[in-house]
């Protein structure tokens, strides 16, 4: 497999679309150096003066070759072809990112050029350098993500190659040819299946034992802990989709996520320690890097051993992982509060409920005057009508009569902005009519079928002095636990009834709109996997 990967890296096809535009942009700005670039683009008599690096970026964008429908393949060869094209795209994207970094580096050199400095003020130079630093940081992040995607694509290609070597191709072709015979007798099944699917969506039946999570649910970026909780010499053990993992920082300070099980004797690595960017098993001292490779085996010969690792990234104060088998998407969604807000609290809790039931609760505000009578909704009047207003088929909107905007952000986040006119009071028909606001982020990580890891971030657009009050974090955590405990006793009761056969979505009404749309979104993933 390593030979195939090496060959892939050296023989991918070629285009100069993006890099040509970037070179032309620079050609319009400066002189002698860019005239050399023009000679490179023209070729011909100047062939001998070409920069050898330019051929590295002359790679064609392979997306036009990828089939539109990649969901079904009649042969393993077709599946291999698509996987190979995915790998070519990852390579093309990585080259474009590197090219962007090189061009930005040249722009930095131009800004710092002594001749250019004579005609620019210090303020202008500082501003240009700051902008370039931001662009460089973004380009470096894109390169890191591309590396992760290439690694995942190679793993998929290796798996498909194994299938071919095991003669799965011949067996599947034989099965397909046999399956073509009884097709007329089964032609009515798709319409029946669609009817059942339609009834399921209309009835919204959520009852019975909690089912294992389908694989499509795993193909998302999941924030699993706050950056502030992952120090250089510490680790954070987590569960995700019923699998144990452990987070720690490598020698370069970047986070990594490996399975929380030593390859030697299955001892939990989270019981050990982090030593110089490697996690050490407490049983026999085996040490692993952030990519899962064993780097040290005391008292014996070092073997080529590796444990599973997940794509792991740090952004906006969160550590993110990609637990699915599909290649990671190139970008991570932003969960930052709106401009003008400051983060005041970041809290992590482990809750003994299925994450879908917790999301149902968070997406429902109509229960507040009845459930949270000892905390934030104490004294709230009971409205004659509660509605959630939202554009058609959207996962966001606002509550009436409460000045609260709310959004479900797939796969597991609830974002809300609450308008506050007076301390502890909700007044006004919308958040825009309120002078001060509280912004909340709830991330519900599916640890297991009966356990959720909750990440809570609270931000305010007023009273920045609160951040400097001693032990204020403890106060916020105490208040958050009080609110959640009011909900937990109800959700745990729901979970018990649901497992015993009761439908927790038996009679949805108007104010259940956002929760229903979350359930339909989740059902759609399961239906796609079945089909």
Q: Give the biggest beta sheet.
A: 7 strands, antiparallel
Number of strands: 18
Order of helices and strands: HHHHHHHHEEEEEEEEEEEEHHEEEEEEHH
Helix amount: 25-40%
Q: What's the helix count?
A: 12
Radius of gyration from CA coordinates: 28 Å
What percent strand?
Answer: 15-25%
- Which outline best applies? globular
Gap between N and C termini, in Å? 31 Å
Strand order across the biggest sheet?
A: 12-18-17-16-15-14-13
Unreliable segments of 5+ consecutive residues: 1-50, 165-170, 172-201
Residue-averaged pLDDT: 77
Question: SS-based structural class?
Answer: alpha+beta
Please characterize this protein's 3D structure.
- It is a single chain.
- With 531 residues, the chain is of the alpha+beta class.
- The chain contains twelve helices and 18 strands.
- The chain has a seven-stranded antiparallel sheet with strand order 12-18-17-16-15-14-13.
- The two termini are 31 Å apart.
Question: How would you summarize what this structure contains?
Answer:
The chain is α+β, with helices and mostly antiparallel strands and 531 residues long. It is built from twelve helices and 18 strands.
Task: Considering the chains and any ligands shown, give keywords for the structure.
38% helix, alpha+beta, disordered N terminus
Secondary structure topology:
Blueprint: H1 2-10, H2 17-27, H3 32-42, H4 76-112, H5 114-117, H6 122-165, H7 168-179, H8 189-203, E1 222-226, E2 235-240, E3 243-249, E4 255-259, E5 273-275, E6 278-280, E7 287-288, E8 294-296, E9 309-310, E10 312-315, E11 318-321, E12 342-351, H9 355-362, H10 368-371, E13 387-389, E14 396-400, E15 404-409, E16 413-420, E17 436-448, E18 451-460, H11 472-499, H12 513-530
Antiparallel strand pairs: 1-11, 2-3, 3-4, 4-9, 5-6, 6-7, 7-8, 10-11, 12-18, 13-14, 14-15, 15-16, 16-17, 17-18
Helix pairs in contact: 2-3, 2-4, 4-6, 9-12
């Amino acid at each position: 497999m390593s030979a195939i990967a090496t060959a892939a890296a050296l023989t991918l096809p070629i285009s100069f679309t993006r890099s040509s535009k970037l070179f032309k942009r620079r050609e319009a700005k400066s002189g002698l150096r860019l005239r050399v670039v023009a000679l490179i683009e023209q070729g011909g008599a100047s062939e001998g003066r070409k920069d050898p690096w330019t051929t590295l970026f002359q790679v064609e964008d392979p997306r036009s070759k990828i089939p539109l429908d990649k969901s079904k393949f009649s042969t393993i060869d077709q599946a291999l072809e698509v996987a190979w094209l995915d790998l070519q795209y990852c390579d093309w994207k990585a080259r474009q990112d590197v090219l962007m970094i090189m061009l930005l580096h040249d722009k930095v050199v131009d800004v710092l050029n002594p001749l250019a400095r004579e005609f620019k003020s210090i303020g202008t130079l500082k501003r240009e350098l700051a902008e370039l630093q931001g662009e460089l940081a973004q380009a470096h992040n894109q390169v890191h993500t591309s590396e992760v995607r290439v690694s995942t694509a190679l793993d998929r290609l290796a798996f498909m190659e194994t299938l071919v070597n095991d003669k799965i191709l011949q067996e599947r072709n034989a099965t397909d040819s046999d399956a073509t015979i009884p097709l007329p007798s089964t032609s009515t099944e798709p319409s029946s299946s669609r009817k059942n699917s339609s009834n399921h969506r209309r009835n919204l039946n959520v009852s019975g034992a909690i089912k294992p999570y389908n694989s499509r649910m795993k193909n998302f970026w999941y924030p699993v802990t706050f950056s502030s909780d992952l120090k250089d010499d510490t680790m954070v053990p987590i569960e995700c989709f019923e699998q144990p993992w452990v987070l720690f920082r490598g020698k370069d300070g970047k986070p990594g996520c490996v399975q929380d099980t030593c390859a030697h004797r299955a001892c939990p690595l989270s019981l050990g320690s982090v030593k110089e960017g490697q996690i050490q098993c407490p049983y026999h001292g085996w040490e692993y890097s952030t990519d899962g490779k064993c780097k040290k085996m005391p008292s014996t010969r070092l073997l080529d051993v590796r444990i599973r690792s997940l794509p792991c990234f740090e952004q906006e104060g969160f550590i993110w992982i990609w637990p699915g088998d599909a290649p990671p998407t190139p970008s991570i969604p932003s969960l930052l509060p709106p401009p003008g807000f400051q983060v005041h609290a970041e809290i992590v809790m482990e809750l003994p409920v299925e994450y879908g039931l917790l999301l149902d609760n968070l997406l429902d505000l109509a229960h507040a005057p009845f459930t949270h009578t000892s905390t934030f909704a104490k004294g709230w009047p009971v409205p004659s009508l509660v509605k959630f207003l939202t554009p058609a088929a959207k996962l966001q909107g606002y509550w009436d009569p409460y000045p609260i905007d709310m959004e479900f952000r797939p796969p597991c986040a609830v974002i809300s902005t609450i308008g506050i006119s007076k301390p502890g009071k909700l007044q006004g028909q919308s958040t825009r009519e309120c002078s001060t606001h509280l912004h909340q982020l709830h991330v519900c990580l599916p640890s297991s079928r009966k356990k959720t890891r909750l990440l809570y971030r609270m931000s305010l657009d007023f009273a920045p002095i609160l951040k400097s009050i001693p032990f204020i974090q403890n106060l916020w955590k105490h208040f958050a636990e009080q609110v959640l405990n009011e909900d937990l006793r109800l959700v745990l009761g729901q979970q018990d009834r649901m497992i015993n056969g009761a439908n927790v979505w038996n009679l949805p009404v108007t104010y259940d709109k956002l929760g229903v749309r979350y359930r339909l979104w989740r059902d759609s993933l399961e239906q796609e996997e079945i089909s």
